């Protein structure tokens, strides 16, 4: 199998390294607007560097991995789909919900599989949590808690165009809540604060946020996020049901310090970066995409799935700014 990679920044180079080690992948073709990035990746991973996305598609690839800047996602997705080539694209689908909907409409009846990268769907702990819900062993859920705490804020230039903490960070939690529970969000209430970097407030964003989501069966989901967690990168999930309670991410590298007398857990080196926290998940995710590209399975996270997480982010952003509960129906009609 020959896989093309569009975009060779931090995550694109990481994906290139992973793909180069998969048994299903025989060769890579890479491209980036910065020619030196493509050349460097080609030298590192034995890939072929080409000058443009069109040249990459003309090279006879079986699938395309898009890891370019967010603004480029819609056109790159559609270019690959028009060529009939299966696509893996890092989230988000597009910079805005309107653009994402345009992509959804364009690919819906194309017959080409598009896989959006929400890596927690492939993390072993999160997968086990999903199985526990599906099997019914937890009983009816009462509360879901999903946490993403970044060790440090992204650069000011990124914050200025990201759309806010709910759209670029909490959206992982929103996708997780939908996927794990199999339910839809009906209403949100969100709040936030600024406790650190001044440039985040200057961009009209918050650096710490919480959202309370009401699901369509009455389950409550609590989502917590911050840009400032110096102990490390903390991504966790708790599920509390009528019969049992479980957690994903409750392991020795959890960036949390217990102050209970005599406690030795967690005792490992705290996760500092999302790439080390979810290294196993990223590999499983790209392995799944090779199966999608080979026609062995449908997309495990469609454009429609990504758009649903985006709608929740829109509702939370509105709730944050207007200090009130917001129904999903309201934002969909806006």
TrEMBL record:
<keyword id="KW-0560">Oxidoreductase</keyword>
<protein>
    <submittedName>
        <fullName>Oxidoreductase domain protein</fullName>
    </submittedName>
</protein>
<dbReference type="GO" id="GO:0000166">
    <property type="term" value="F:nucleotide binding"/>
</dbReference>
<dbReference type="GO" id="GO:0016491">
    <property type="term" value="F:oxidoreductase activity"/>
</dbReference>
<comment type="similarity">
    <text>Belongs to the Gfo/Idh/MocA family.</text>
</comment>
<dbReference type="InterPro" id="IPR000683">
    <property type="entry name" value="Gfo/Idh/MocA-like_OxRdtase_N"/>
</dbReference>
<dbReference type="Pfam" id="PF01408">
    <property type="entry name" value="GFO_IDH_MocA"/>
</dbReference>
<dbReference type="Pfam" id="PF22725">
    <property type="entry name" value="GFO_IDH_MocA_C3"/>
</dbReference>
<dbReference type="InterPro" id="IPR036291">
    <property type="entry name" value="NAD(P)-bd_dom_sf"/>
</dbReference>
<feature type="domain" description="Gfo/Idh/MocA-like oxidoreductase N-terminal">
    <location>
        <begin position="1"/>
        <end position="118"/>
    </location>
</feature>
<dbReference type="InterPro" id="IPR055170">
    <property type="entry name" value="GFO_IDH_MocA-like_dom"/>
</dbReference>
<feature type="domain" description="GFO/IDH/MocA-like oxidoreductase">
    <location>
        <begin position="126"/>
        <end position="246"/>
    </location>
</feature>
